[in-house]
Amino acid sequence: MKAITTMRRYFRILLCLFKFRLSNQMIYRASFWTVFCVDLSMFLIQLAVFSALFLNVESINGWNKYQMIFFVGTFNLVDSTNMFLFFFGVISIPLKIREGKLDIYLTKPINTLFWMSLENIDISSCMLFVPGSIMLGYAAAKLGIKLTLGNISGYFLLLALMLLLLYNLMLILRTLSFWFIKTDALHSLEGELIGFCFRVPGIVYTGIAKLVLYVLLPYALLATIPTQFFTGILSGGQWLLVILVTLGFTILAQTLWRLGLKNYTSASS
Amino acid sequence: MKKYYEIGKISLKNQMAYRFNVYIGSLMPFIRVFLAYYLWRTLFAGKDVMGGMTFSMMLTYYIICAFLQRLDQSNDLVWELAGDIREGRFSKYLVKPVSPLGHFMSISLGKTSYILFITLVTVLIIAFIFDKNFVPPVISINLILAAIIAFMGLIFMILINYLTALLAFKFTDITGWHLLKGNVIEFLSGALMPLSLLPLWIQDIMRLSPFYYIQYLPASLYLGLKTEEAVIGTLLMASWNLALWGLSEATYRRFRKLYEGVGI
After folding, report:
1. Is the pLDDT of residue B96 over 60?
2. Domain residue ranges in chain B
């Protein structure tokens, strides 16, 4: 009963944050459209790259053009949900730690991480669901995939797991700001890895690269796994891998966050 | 000129102060090349040549592009200059006898000088790792022209980034412009894939744009390809740089009147 009450409370807070951001973003209408335009350009460029590659090859490690479009559409959904929900909140954490602004978050009767992660919801990113869904629908139709309750719910379950994994990966890097002053290069490195795993599907990796990008820095799982599930080539072992990796990184992120908070000395007080 | 040299020197020293950041950043070419290796190894299965390149040439192409991309340090300076304009710190340029463009360029080239050394070491390590798949440089007119065009490309990037930062006078928030510009240039410069994989008619159009000469042409020249385009490329890049320099100065003269000097 207490859990339900807490959940209701947090849902109300989330709704408040959403309303606050909506009115805030409406003031800066040009900025409202920029995230949408930037992300859309990224996906269009990616489609252009894959189209150019498929002018020269017939398949990429067994994946045809439509599986690739499905992969881009899936990454679009993961990325736009990330941008919509927590991207801007999480990337602002290091600055708050560095400048001591974390103090005010710690004194409020609310889960600090929940507030910091979701206070900068970006509503314009929602619009990216449209091109993403069109890509998915088009690719699924071309691949002749029948939509069933099973494959739709499994796909969304995997998307949710991948979002949780992405959140944890982002958070882990930001918690390093508790110990190091300047971590910009690490964030650029993260951007590079995410960018590349969006351009290169996980199916091309073998050996050590696969171990690194599937388990140690599991960015390659993000769009590859849901695509493999929906196109019917995800094994039971891979399901287990996804669940274990997500669980492992959730525990690691939470542990580092708590350790960081213990280490936090504020900036000016 | 001496004052700009001193600014560049200070910028170089600043880079040394944040060595952790620089060293971590130098891992970037590693990531790019390793991931490209896995992608292209798969794409080359059963093929010898794609887009006029063998697998070794393709990998070398990515190594050169990663190297050139790392040399451009003006990208991050956009946030700094735009922040200065937005938050009123730009006033320091108005009271000092330095041109904002000269200052921006000196800082950027100062950073590049330090990064050049670190990245060169990184590239040598990558070349050593990929040994058999790395096409070694051959001292030739191609290599010299590649270096000249790449330097011009670097200046072009500094100018375009300066121009992007100046937009903060008018639009305040330039995040969207800057990111959009980054995405488009990454594709048009051939950093994502060699432009020779695109249909010929698209390549013909791209030859007129400056982006073709930032990474794609220098990397191709290094590989002994596109030699016939080197001279025209040098002239075109010089014209583009001159035009962009003029545009930057004109934009600055026009936009600085919009500066409000917040907080003064």
Report:
1. yes
2. 2-258
